[in-house]
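To: structure subgroup
Subject: Chain for Friday's discussion

All,

I'm putting the inputs and outputs inline so they're searchable in the archive.
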Amino acid sequence: MATTLDSMTEKKLEELAKTLGRSKLRILKDALQHYADELKDLDAAMDRLNDPHARLIDHEEAKRALNLVD
């Protein structure tokens, strides 16, 4: 796979790689993996939200369920 970055993004990536002591490729791979994980979590959350059988609770009920009541 190949990609082209705009000059500002390339510069930021180079600075980050230097600061972290990691390769640009490793940083990009980690970022893409994190992004993919976040999208997977979002998809699962949306499935639960759109489930007609799901029981939704409000903020106050969630606090009570977690023993976070003031």
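Points worth raising on Friday:
The chain has one domain: 7-65.
Helices lie at 7-20, 24-49, 59-65.

D.
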